[in-house]
Inverse folding.
């Protein structure tokens, strides 16, 4: 059998299964976005681009998108730096490394929605652990869900706690398979650990770093559970992200058609942004002379 | 100096990781009254621990029994992960070794297509998936949820494994093929044994993400097949019972800790330099 047979044998089963599962939801969403499906009438009529025009001038939706930009960039960068530090420590070797590695992975294993409830119980103003601790050391308590900055802080903390282990594991996978030769060469040259890190480790990790950053940008943009449980997008709509906005439109107000329009817009914007981010990161990390 | 910083950071991070978990563990042994009287941290000293929260979720007090839900979660997670890692691993190997293309689209576009499946939030896909499974008569079945989850897990496996296979020198495949293997045999005999760290990490991601899916489980299954996260959230009535929720939060990560503990041993330092003969 020729090489083409094997080529297809590797890729096609996975690719075709994925297409088979995803094609209907995608086509269906596109079709629905041109209808007027809502709580009072369901069905696939045709109203042209009405939903798309509404989306274009929906200031609340675009406000949520802008808020996401800040949120996604901040949490992903913090998770990348922390995750890289932890992975690098484990890779270099620390005492009881296996134990730490296992403990650090535990947040990833917890269900985000359930952990959000645990965080809620920590940040409850009256009976929560955070204010309890503040009180016990004589500080004044904080209105975790009524003030904008503390409310955002609780969400950032929950997200960083939950997802830094993802970065850690993804980057550790990359470190574990780095070739040995460049490090041996650096050692022979007497390169300092700092120099080795910036000149060898980080550049060699560029492809997997870009992969990790892109997937975290994708995942953190979908943030829903912690906002739903911790702040309900409040105070006001200070912590409302597109996913929360979408959920409100489509599953509480049953504006199915408009929800599908917003979802497709979100998909298109994300694809464009991610493509640009991937290009920029690849350009920054391109191999350069020493 | 850097050693002090390193261990200070390691200890700080470990405490940060353990803090909410210990809070949950402590809360799970509280009575409703102990929860509501304010923040307390030390059992026996500040409050009298009880097993009520645990009895409530293990079917002993007749309030709820999460064990059948845990078995459902195990079945669904196992098969969704198995399909994702197998087909995703094969696809990733293909994408790392061969050139695919159609008009202007090439390998990087196919890889992006895989990961793009994760962009849309589950909220958006819930309704179309509901209609799809309804027409296929797969609502409220294990198979239906397994298929839907696979579409979310396989992209992560592909995304991770392509980079991973790219790091394995091609000489290894070529050597195997010179010795008379066809590409599939070369993959199985020469590449798979070297890929244990990558497979282990993919499997960890697939299992964890599959296990923790809540949204699809809530929308696509009702009574016959209720998964653990869905059952836990259903416990959350008008008043949030923090003690049972804390117990179920701890309960639902125990199987994952066991799984990761077993699989994690394959995460050893690789480096393929020695593998080329």
């Amino acid at each position: 059998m020729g090489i083409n047979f094997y080529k297809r044998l590797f890729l096609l089963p996975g690719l075709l299964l994925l297409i088979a599962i995803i094609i209907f939801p995608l086509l269906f969403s596109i079709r629905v976005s041109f209808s007027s499906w809502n709580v009072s009438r369901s069905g696939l009529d045709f109203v042209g681009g009405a939903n798309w025009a509404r989306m274009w001038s929906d200031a609340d939706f675009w406000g949520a998108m802008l808020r996401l930009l800040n949120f996604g960039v901040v949490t992903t960068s913090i998770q990348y730096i922390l995750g890289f530090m932890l992975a690098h420590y484990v890779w270099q070797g620390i005492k009881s490394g296996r134990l730490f590695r296992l403990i650090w992975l535990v947040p990833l294993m917890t269900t985000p929605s359930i952990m959000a409830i645990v965080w809620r119980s920590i940040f409850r103003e009256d009976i929560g652990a955070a204010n309890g601790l503040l009180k016990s050391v004589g500080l004044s308590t904080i209105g975790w869900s009524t003030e904008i900055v503390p409310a955002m802080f609780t969400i950032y903390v929950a997200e960083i706690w939950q997802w830094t282990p993802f970065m850690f594991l993804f980057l550790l996978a990359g470190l574990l398979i780095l070739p040995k030769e460049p490090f041996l060469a650096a050692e022979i040259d007497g390169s300092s650990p700092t120099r080795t890190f910036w000149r060898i480790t980080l550049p060699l990790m560029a492809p997997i770093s870009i992969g990790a950053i892109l997937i975290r940008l994708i995942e953190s943009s979908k943030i829903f559970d912690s906002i739903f449980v911790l702040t309900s997008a409040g105070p006001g709509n200070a912590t409302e992200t597109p996913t929360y906005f979408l959920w409100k439109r489509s599953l509480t107000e049953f504006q199915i058609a408009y929800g599908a329009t917003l979802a497709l817009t979100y998909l298109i914007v994300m694809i464009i942004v991610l493509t640009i981010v991937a290009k920029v990161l690849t350009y920054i990390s391109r191999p350069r002379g020493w | 100096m850097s050693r002090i910083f390193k261990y200070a950071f390691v200890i700080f991070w470990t405490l940060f990781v353990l803090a909410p978990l210990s809070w949950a563990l402590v809360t799970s042994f509280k009575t409703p009254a102990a929860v509501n009287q304010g923040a307390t941290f030390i059992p026996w000293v500040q409050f009298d621990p009880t097993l009520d929260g645990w009895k409530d979720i293990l079917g002993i007090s007749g309030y709820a029994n999460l064990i059948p839900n845990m078995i459902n979660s195990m079945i669904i997670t196992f098969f969704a992960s198995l399909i994702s890692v197998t087909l995703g691993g094969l696809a990733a190997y293909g994408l790392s070794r061969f050139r695919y293309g159609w008009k202007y689209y090439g390998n990087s576009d196919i890889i992006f297509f895989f990961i793009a499946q994760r962009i849309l939030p589950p909220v958006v896909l819930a309704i179309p998936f509901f209609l799809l499974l309804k027409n296929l008569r797969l609502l409220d079945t294990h198979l239906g949820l397994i298929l839907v989850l696979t579409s979310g897990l396989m992209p992560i496996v592909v995304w991770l494994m392509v980079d991973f296979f790219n790091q394995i020198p091609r000489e290894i495949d070529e050597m195997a093929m010179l010795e008379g293997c066809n590409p599939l045999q070369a993959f199985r005999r020469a590449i798979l044994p070297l890929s244990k760290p990558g497979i282990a990490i993919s499997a960890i991601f697939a299992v964890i993400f599959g296990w923790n899916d809540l949204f699809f489980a809530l929308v696509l299954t009702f009574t016959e097949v209720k998964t653990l996260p869905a059952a836990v959230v259903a416990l959350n009535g008008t008043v949030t019972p923090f003690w049972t929720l804390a117990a179920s939060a701890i309960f639902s990560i125990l199987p994952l800790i066991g799984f990761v503990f077993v699989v994690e041993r394959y995460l050893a330092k690789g480096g393929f330099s020695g593998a080329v003969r």
